[in-house]
Design a protein that fits this description.
Length: 553
């Protein structure tokens, strides 16, 4: 009996030690004669002799003020015990063993700043011959977030060390507008996180950085996720290996080889420089509930779509995330977000996808960069802005902004704006593949387009249509046999279900069109349709983008 128990205990102990992930105490000379200690995690795939794509990407993790050390090896244990941090997850066997990253978690004495951080990044090639120095990702929390901001604001060359940066509740505001130069010149992808009511480090720090960087036109657009929370801890929601916010997949899209030419090129002649804005804290952040709390009805999407291949378009190699930027038209006067894929689709022309927002994203009537940021709150633009777009999609996406004050309640200006978009992009888009989608009033705007523009469409998608059938408009859909998809949740809090039902009935019974109208009417889900309908991670059967690409006009 005892023997059996001892035997079982031995097995369990053995299994546990086999599965244990190892953090090793290490040191390097961060300055001549001056040692800095760090924890090292090597993935099972690491080999010092690896070459090419077999080399391991690297995460440098910077701890918070609570893990400040004295410069001694014995203080490293603080890093292992800091809940919700990357070393903590590794130490507790909660790390994804398939994750390919080398993780290096150095410990500072005093504050985290650029001089403390850069030497490790610069020595990685020497310390780890099997590391891929084009894929060094820098992240940190609180004081460590300050270390991230400080490390990427000094010079372009120092910023270029990193493939991407994720500062979380970073305890450092920008000091001067010159702080934005190095990251903008480098084109470093940044995704910052903060809690909305952080009592320790104000959310204004993150808001100011992101507004400043995007105001200076950083490309790709700097991303920001603000959780609705009154605690300081925004990191547990981000670093958790099973978190729905998968920064690890997001990291792996990027290397530090980023020719800016492919990012900042403007091919349109009607754009003007964004209006200069004073850096007021943006009120249009992407506010989401932390994914690990049990908040009901989270409208955040739960997966970061990793690059997957699409069968509809041939590309060479794995496509990278495209460019996402604000643009402005003077005549007619409107602003828009433009997403351009990282590749030119086969055939040389992009299919065009136009998104018309709902009242949640309408401007106050002014055409400004700040107003345009309102588009990022939901729907299709939110997915792109959050790095959750599928980079293999071939669409040139244009998301213009309307308002609710200048007689545009139903997107009456959709006609002139779409006409302008088609003209501006005529040389690079495939005129047989012009797709349009809209939600709420944006869906109404689609139905009110003229015959000329309806005739140019290959397919149309209306979410939460906000106007009842009117044969004047409906008949245009009939005469063109426009492929249509209507989408709503039956318990939508703002839109009468009868509008969609009457449209669908008109196009299926009164005047049947071919192909048959597609109608999605989910029993529940409330307002979530504005995100669910647009999620690039939806399986093929319910995937909007796959559906679009089956049609030409
Ligand atoms: C673990 O990492 C691998 C490799 O990056 C990834 O494919 C997998 O989805 C990850 N698992 C989870 C649960 O995130
Ligand atoms: C960090 O610890 C060092 C010594 O252990 C101390 O001198 C320093 O004031 C601490 N710094 C912070 C920011 O806590
Ligand atoms: C609209 O908002 C902008 C900031 O985006 C502000 O400068 C402007 O004064 C506002 N205009 C009106 C008409 O409220």
């Amino acid at each position: 009996m005892y023997k059996n128990i001892v035997f079982i205990v031995l097995i369990v102990t053995t299994l546990a030690s086999v599965n244990a992930l190892t953090l090793t105490d290490k040191s390097f000379f961060w300055a001549p004669g001056s040692t800095m200690w760090y924890l090292e995690y090597l993935p099972p795939t690491y080999s010092p002799t690896a070459t090419g794509s077999a080399k391991s990407p690297v995460i440098i993790f910077l701890h918070g003020a609570g893990e400040n050390g004295s410069g001694q090896k014995s203080d490293l244990v603080k890093l292992k015990n800091a809940g919700g941090s990357i070393p903590y997850y590794i130490n507790n066997n909660q790390w994804n063993v398939s994750s390919p990253f080398i993780v290096l978690a150095p410990q500072t004495w005093g504050w985290w700043d650029e001089p403390k951080v850069t030497p490790l990044a610069q020595q990685i090639a020497t310390l780890y011959p099997g590391a891929d120095t084009t894929r060094i990702y820098l992240t940190g929390l609180s004081q460590g977030g300050a270390g991230v901001w400080d490390s990427i604001r000094k010079t372009k060359a120092k910023t270029d060390l990193y493939a991407a940066a994720v500062p979380i509740c970073g305890a450092q505001n920008y000091v001067a507008s010159t702080d934005w130069q190095a990251p903008v010149q480098s084109g470093i992808p940044i995704w910052a996180f903060h809690n909305s009511n952080d009592p320790t480090v104000g959310v204004g720090n993150t808001n100011n950085w992101i507004a400043g960087l995007n105001g200076q036109g950083i490309c790709p657009t700097a991303l920001k996720t603000i959780f609705t929370s009154s605690s300081h801890d925004a990191w547990t929601a981000v670093y958790g290996p099973t978190s729905s916010i998968n920064i690890y997949a997001w990291f792996l899209q990027f290397t530090n080889q980023r020719p800016l030419a492919s990012c900042v090129t403007s091919t349109t002649s009607t754009t003007t420089a964004p209006p200069t804005t004073t850096v007021a804290a943006s009120t249009t952040s992407t506010t989401t509930a932390p994914p690990t709390t049990t908040v009901a009805a989270s409208t955040t999407s739960t997966t970061t779509a990793p690059p997957t291949t699409t069968t509809t378009t041939s590309t060479t190699g794995t496509p990278a995330y495209g460019t996402w930027q604000q643009k402005f038209s003077t005549s007619p006067s409107y602003g828009y977000w433009e997403y351009k894929p990282s590749f030119v689709p086969s055939g040389g022309k992009y299919p065009l996808l136009v998104f018309l927002h709902g009242s949640d994203a309408a401007s106050n009537g002014s055409v400004t960069s700040t107003e345009l940021n309102k588009l990022l709150v939901s729907s299709l633009p939110k997915f792109i802005n959050n790095g959750q777009w599928n980079p293999a999609y071939p669409f040139l996406v244009v998301a213009p902004q309307s308002d609710l004050v200048n007689g545009n309640y139903y997107w009456q200006n959709a006609e002139s704006i779409l006409t302008n978009i088609l003209s501006v992009y005529s040389s690079i888009i495939d005129p047989t593949r012009v797709y349009i989608t809209g939600q709420g009033r944006g869906a109404s705007g689609i139905t009110m387009l003229s015959a000329t523009n309806i005739n140019k469409l290959a397919a149309a998608h209306m979410v939460r249509i906000f106007n009842d059938i009117n044969p004047t408009y409906g008949s245009l859909f009939v005469s063109t046999n426009l492929p249509t998809w209507f989408y709503i949740n039956q318990d939508d809090p703002h839109v009468p279900l009868s509008y969609q039902n009457n449209w669908v009935n008109y196009l299926t019974t009164t005047n049947p069109i071919t192909p048959a109208v597609r109608s999605t009417s989910n029993p529940t889900g409330g307002l979530n349709s504005i995100n669910d309908a647009y999620n690039p991670a939806n399986p093929a059967a319910t995937n909007l983008y796959t559906w679009f690409l089956t049609y030409t006009n």
